[in-house]
Each structure stands twice: as structure tokens, then as C-alpha cells.
TrEMBL record, chains A, B:
GO biological process terms, semicolon-separated: histidyl-tRNA aminoacylation; mitochondrial translation
Name of this chain's protein: Histidine--tRNA ligase, mitochondrial
Enzyme Commission number: 6.1.1.21
Natural source organism: Staphylotrichum tortipilum
Catalytic reaction(s) noted: tRNA(His) + L-histidine + ATP = L-histidyl-tRNA(His) + AMP + diphosphate + H(+)
Residues the record lists as binding L-histidine: 84-86, 112, 128, 132, 282, 286-287
PANTHER family the record matches: HISTIDINE--TRNA LIGASE (PTHR11476:SF7), HISTIDYL-TRNA SYNTHETASE (PTHR11476)
Keywords for this protein: Aminoacyl-tRNA synthetase, ATP-binding, Cytoplasm, Ligase, Nucleotide-binding, Protein biosynthesis
Cellular location(s): Cytoplasm
Amino acid sequence: MAPKAPKFEIKTPKGTRDWSGADMVLRERIFRTIADVFKRHGGITIDTPVFELKEILAGKYGEDSKLIYDLADQGGELCSLRYDLTVPFARYLAMNKDVTQIKRYHIAKVYRRDQPAVKKGRMREFYQCDFDIAGVYDPMIPDAEIIRIINEVFEGLGFQGKYTIKLNSRKILDGLFQVCGVPEPLIRPISSAVDKLDKLPWADVRKEMVDEKGLSPEAADKIGQYVLLKGQRDLLEKLKEDKDLAANASMQAGFADMDLLFTYLEAFGADHTVSFDLSLARGLDYYTGVIYEVVTEGSAPAAPASEENKAKAAKKKGGKPSSADDDRSDDPTLGIGSIAAGGRYDNLVGMFSGKTQVPCVGISFGIDRIFSIISAIQKEKERRNEVDVFVMAFGGGKDFTGLLKERSQVCSRLWDAGIKAELLYKVKPKLQNQFKAAEAGGVPFALILGEDELAQGKAKLKEMGLPEDHPLKEGELISLDNLIEEVKVRLARKEQLDKIATQAEGLRVVDGIKGEVAPKKEEEPKAAADIKAEPKTKEEKEVKLVSALAAQAAE
Amino acid sequence: MAPKAPKFEIKTPKGTRDWSGADMVLRERIFRTIADVFKRHGGITIDTPVFELKEILAGKYGEDSKLIYDLADQGGELCSLRYDLTVPFARYLAMNKDVTQIKRYHIAKVYRRDQPAVKKGRMREFYQCDFDIAGVYDPMIPDAEIIRIINEVFEGLGFQGKYTIKLNSRKILDGLFQVCGVPEPLIRPISSAVDKLDKLPWADVRKEMVDEKGLSPEAADKIGQYVLLKGQRDLLEKLKEDKDLAANASMQAGFADMDLLFTYLEAFGADHTVSFDLSLARGLDYYTGVIYEVVTEGSAPAAPASEENKAKAAKKKGGKPSSADDDRSDDPTLGIGSIAAGGRYDNLVGMFSGKTQVPCVGISFGIDRIFSIISAIQKEKERRNEVDVFVMAFGGGKDFTGLLKERSQVCSRLWDAGIKAELLYKVKPKLQNQFKAAEAGGVPFALILGEDELAQGKAKLKEMGLPEDHPLKEGELISLDNLIEEVKVRLARKEQLDKIATQAEGLRVVDGIKGEVAPKKEEEPKAAADIKAEPKTKEEKEVKLVSALAAQAAE
């Protein structure tokens, strides 16, 4: 069939992209790091379909419902692509009445017909990484563990404390609005206005409340006294002293929650990155208790927003005021936004199941934004593939067969032993081209077969990239009888040396657990310091453990 | 907000399902096993959007195009959900002209608006696991490696040789039809008819060729002499002796390919599960060279098809003849069908890029079918979560605080060390309920905190599920100073003992590499036996390796 040039542009749909090469490797490492944290806390994963019945999504996302992708009506049920992973999870719980308690995580794509902004990491198809704890438990313990998980994820990703978990409670917000005299129907709109305080000055937000939403100036000013407050447990104590607030029932409930939460956060060693922030309101309707949003330096606005910029933004959007959800606003003053967000939603499952409620609390990591931040500062070279050994043939002249059979057989033995290996798909390959291919993949070892060496049952094993003056630069002759063992020992040695080198250089490592590779900062608050801490030198213990294992295995 | 009972049925869309619990754990293990094989061969993964421009998919799937899911026209580009992973890969290669050689794998969902048959593992949303080698190389080397990969995947999944890789070549088929006198326009329809020989007797297929497709009875009979032939290299030698066939140019090219392929398969130790099968034709148009399809015992039809059954099938489908692609036929005589399939497609990329061709060869594993087979025979109990230690409080009476703070702190230390740990979300939990939760998750160790032991800096570490008379049934008191080390040593020991127990019982293990855990059958052809095999006892070498590592680490 003769290829015809297609008449349309070959591209991915708007707001979508392919992931490949170093980007893909980095994204996979981020996923693995996050999933490891989830599993460390007992998380199990579930997988739901990429589309849901249209009715399932209806009435869950307020005015953002217009961003939902529908499938064409080709007969049968009407379906839509999932908009997040939370509503499908609630639907799953409503369908599976035997599942009354679960810690589930879900790393998958969601879809929003939004204005894409590729540089900011805002796409129409993007990944969410969700962890949710569902079930009836004693108050605030799971909520505190979620915040501990947020800390572990960002430490595991190498953020080294450079992030803030903004924390608030819907109960406190609702109480605050009641105390300040906001009429019931205005509570949600006023809440949305408050949520913009991370990118607009108070004067602008006040203006919106009074001029656009119709709130009385007195109520607005009263709100202004509170919503700019930030702190930690001290702020909670301060609020409790305020008689007006302390008299409100919703506020009392919120205070009790936050009291417990701070106590548990301290026990989990997870209180040092939180900021109790009364301006945090979150866009979605379904939150009922604690809410949180994680911001990092890169996600702060570049400059304080002026009225002019705001006007520009409004104009660009066709005169409509910007959306309450900063995740999807195209306000030009917005940085890359929050990198994780979530909260408690106790009534969502009941929207599907009728009477049966399953209270939930969860967190969603904005993986594409996290990826953008890490890839911008990540200096390490990512390996493209994971191959350990490139099997090569050396020889020349008329009689050179290329040793394809022998290369294939050696590769087969390596594969049989679980060792990752490659060969060049050439009958008579040039040595130079084989080295080029190995270098392109970053393969650490070359196993070079030659007629003479093979006749003695030997081959040359050469570590790639050694400096010119290294004693093993030319490689070592090894016996093919011991092929697997010789290769395994060298791979293990190299892995260990690489690890030590990384530690010595103090490189950022987007992998592993907090402090495992990066040297631990002394000033970092030590979790659970008052329950006898383990000895400091981890290396020593690892050696002990390996020795113990070896002794046991040798018995 | 008071929950309202919804007025529609809460379910997933037709032909889709949620994955959770033991099913999900098993599926993840299958994915990991397959991905490990792909990576062992230098595979790297790419990720493409779940939907493509409608035009990209158009004209690629013949009459099956009617099964494509379209997105609703909500303004902007018209898009469709991907139907397979091959066309998006070809589109990717056409877009990225610098990628001229790649071994890519992709494990992701695809979508077909088909009649679902859940028991057979046929869904509208299902996973494909694809591995493709793209690039210009010496002939048949990548093709042979793909077959080696198929073997490694099914051995890794525990099939122990109980599968057959049916093998044929489009060049041989085309030559055969030419020699038998099939007119050019009939070649594709006659090829489709031949492809049904795995579920219909020859008489029925001949009838379809002559009565429905209009082939001459003489040509049909001539085809019948060949297409029932099966064998290995011997069949190839037999065909080469046939003067009619040997005179045909396409046939000669096919013979040359198969000759090389068998030579390379022998070198790769991958020739023992293939069956050169002249009835294999494959449905899709884009194949240009070698084609293959993997069948297993469970996928063979339960009973030979009769005309009556066939009529029933036709009636069920509204009188239309069944589709050429048995993957999607709802013929009641069909088993669960092929479990993997693929071939060489050298012209697909050119359909997008115009002149530039990138020859490709690949394999797609039907993961849902593989899952159905394994889950039907899998006797092992799957762990629901991966937690290592459940941290509990022991105590009673009025003064029992529940030790929530201490449990939280101990958990935090375990998490800091990368150890998976859980606690019950109760302020004052009953010991019984804590054990119940640990048992439900299959957690191997309980760490029990009590006031008295804590006062001495100790806690009880107890392995779960030990028999009544086991000396450690009641657990061991450990010092919290050495908490991490004590736990790590026991986890490592348990892992090693579990491994030995599994080996001793000879259980099927869906994990790891061929022969690593399951005892190796003596009669199994040993790959590359003539290049000095490594010593047999793997355990010995592992011990040596661990000792070497320990010695090195201690230096």
C-alpha cells in the first residue's frame, strides 16, 4: 500500500499531549513515590471506568459542569468522561454497600473542557493522584493522617519543607459568615469571594462582595477583620477568646475539630508545615469539615494583582467575572496554583445511596503541576531505559560473522536470570555503533563477545563511562560459566556506589522516603521525638541488617 | 444537606466495571510482571491521550470502525476514544520525526462499542499491553525478540508452557492465495474466511468461500490442501519443496523471512512454543509480514462448531454473518479467544507521515482475558493491602487512655523509616477490634503498646497467624530504642521464609521471572545451552551475592 500524505494536521487534540522520553521517566518516578506513600499508610487502589453515566456527574460540580466532556449519543446510555476521581469513588461506595471502611488511592486521568495553559501545567486531559479515607471513625484521626501523608509525599518528592499546607474548616467559615451577618443564600457566593484572597487584595474582594454579591458593607468589613488572619494553634486559641465567635454553634464545632486536629498533627509529627488560614474556602460545594490546599513558592502570584490586570482578565474571558476555582482561572496574575487540595466530604456518598452515608476525607495531588515544578529544577539526567547490559560483538575483516547467534544466546541467559539486556539488531554490527546505542540508552555495562575469547569460554565485561585512567577502563575478562554471577555482583556494586555518590553530592533525589537519601536537616522537627528515637546512623544499621541476612541465608 | 435518593440506577456504564479488592491486586501483579519483561528487553513507555482526533482513527479499522466511541460535538475539534494503542503509536512516530528507532511499551485502556460478554472477559473498556519495536534493522531480528518476549511474559505469568504461539506470514498467505488462483480483490475476504478455521470446520469455511465470497470451487479446494497444515520448521521445509509455491515471488520472500525467523528463535531459545500455522490470517489490514496469535487451552472452543450453532449465532446477531475478528465475535462456540496477538506493520506510520516510513513489529496482550484465566485457577489468597505492622494499644479499665498519641508517634517513626504501618482510628480501641482490622488486611506483624511496657521503653512485637504451639506465639518484647531495626530484621526474615515456603510447596507464582520461584522442569528446552550454562543452584549463588554485598558494605 503506497502511503498517502494525510490532508489534516497530525497532532494530539487540544489540551492533550503525549508523554515520552525523560518527561515520562520523571513522571513515572513521581507516581511511584506518591503510590509508595499511599501504600505505606495502608492504601489500596481501585480503578473506575474513564466514563460514567451522565447522570452520575450531573449536579456535582456547580457551574463548572459546563467543562464536562460528553460522549456522543451513538445509541444506548448517555455517558461523560470523568471530571475528577472523587465523584466516581463516591459512586463506587454507594454501589458497594459492603465497603464501609476503605483507604483507597487512585492515580488516573480526568477530563475538563477548559482553556488549556500548557506552560502552567493546565491541560484538558490530566492526572490526579487521590487518596481518600472512607468510614465512620473517631473524629479527626484520619484527617490528621491525610495531612501526615501530604507531608510525606512532598518530602519524598524532594520539596524539603518548601510548601505550605493551608488549613481551614467549613464549619469555622460557616460560623464566621453567620456571626458577621451574611444571609444564608449569600454564604456560598461570599465564600467564593473569600477564596480569591490568595490572588487579589482585600479591597478588591470586598468590592466584589458589596458591589457584585450585594453584601452589606458592615458585614463585609466584619469579615475582613477575620479572613486575613493566619497562624497555627495560636490563631485557634485567639479565635476561641472572641466572644462573638465562641457563641456560634457551627464555630464551636469547628473549634473542637481544629483542637483535636492540632493535637493529632503534633503526635504524627505533621504540624510544622500547616498554616491555619481563614481565607481558604475551596470552590467545591461538597466539603463539610476540614479543608486544605497545598501551595509552594512557585505557585504564588508573581506580582500583586492590580485592578487593571483584573480588568484585562475579565475582558479576555468575554466580560464574565473569573471563576471561583483558581485551579481553572486564567487570571494572568495567577502562578501555577495549588499543587494539592482536599478536605472532608461526609455527605457526597449519600447523594447516590439515599440514606446510607459514608463519611470521607481525602487529598488530590495535582500531578501535572508538581511535574512542572520538579522538571524545571531537576538537574539530574534521567535514564531513558533500564537496561543493565548491552551485549556486543567485536571483530572485523572478511571472516567476521557478527556473532548474532552467540549474542542472542548470551542475551537469553541474561533474560532468563532477570537481567535487563539488549543487542543491536544487526547481523554484522560495528563495535562503534553498538557503543553508540549503549550510550544513548545510558546502559551501564557492555559485554563484548569476540571469537578468540569465546573459544576460551570468556568475554569482556566493561563498565561504561569510566575515566581514561581507571584501571578497569578496558574491562575485565570474565568466564561465561559464571556469567550471571559476575554480572549480578557488578550490578549490585555499582548500585551501591551510585547511592553513596549521590549521598556525598547531596543531590536532590525524587525518590524514596523522607531523609533516606538526602541528608537530614538538624533543625527539622523530629517526628515523635519523645518516644525513644532510633540511633542516628542509618548506614550502620543497614550494614548490620545485610550482614544478619547474609548470615541467616548461609545457615 | 439532606441526602436525596437518586432516581436512576447507580451503576457503571454498560461493558465497563470497577476494579477493586483481590481482583485489582492480581491485575496489578499481572501488569508488573509484563512491564518487567518489557523493561528487561530495553522497553520504554510512552503515554498518549485517551482520545484522538477523529480523523486519526478514520480508515484504520475497516468495518470495525463502527465500534469507535466518538466524543460529543461540544464545539472545537471532533475526537474519538482510542480503539487500540497501535494507531496512536503510529501517529506518535509520524509526529516525532526524530524518533526513528524505539522499543516502546504502553499499558492502557482502549474502547470499543461492542456487545459486552463479561464472563469471557470482553468489555467495552479494557486494557491492552503493547510492546512494539520500531525502526529499520536487519530483517527478522526484532520479530524474533518479540516472540521471545511473548514466551517470557507467559512463563512469568505461570503458564508453564501451556500456550501456543501460532505463527504465519502475510507474504506466505498472499503468495498462497495467488498460487491457488484467488483473484486480487478477493484476497482479503478469503483471508478472513481462512482466519475462522480455529472455530469452524473446513467444510463450513469452504462453503463461505464459494457460496458467499464467490470463489471458484477449484481454488477453494486448492487452498484447503494448504491451510490446514501446521508444524514447525519442518513444515517450512516441506512447503519449500512444493514447486508451485516456490515459483511465487511473495512466497519466496515469505520463505526467506521464516527461515531467518526460525534460526533466530532457536538462538533466543524461543522456538519450542511456536506453531507455524497456515490458517492464521488475522483480521486487521495493516499487517505486512509475520503475524502471530497466542492461544491457550482455555481459549479453544469447547465443542466443534456445528451448522446449527452457527445459525444460532447468526440469528442472535440479526442475521448478519459473524465478524472476521474472533476477538469480538459473539459466536457461542467461541472460547475466550486469543490471549495475545500482533505482527509486523511496515506501512502504518506512512499513512500519517506521507513519505517517511517507520517499519514496526509488535505484540498486544489481552490483559482482561489473561486475568480471567489466571483468576479462575489462582488459588493463592491475595493480600488486600501491603501494610507490614499494625500498631495497637493494649489496656482496659477506667484509666485506659487508648494511647493514641503513642500509637501515632510509633507509626510516624515507622513511616519515617519507610515501613508500612497502620493504626485504628479510635481513641480507645478494643484489642480485639485492632486484631480484627489487622487480620482483615492480612498484616503480618502487630506492635502492641501497653502502659507498663512503655514505661520501660518497650513494646510487644507479635507475628500474626502463628500456630498455637509456636514458641513466639505470644510475641517478643522489643526495645523501642531499636524499633526500626527490630522490625526490619523480622520483615526481612519473614519475606525470606515465605519465599522458601512457596518454593517448597511448588505453588504457582504469578510474579518474577521464568523459573525463579517455580522449580524448573528438566525437560524444558534450555535457552542457549551450548554457550556454557551457569551453575544450577540459584540459592547458593544468592547467598554468595548477599555475603559479598554485606562484606563490601561493612568495609
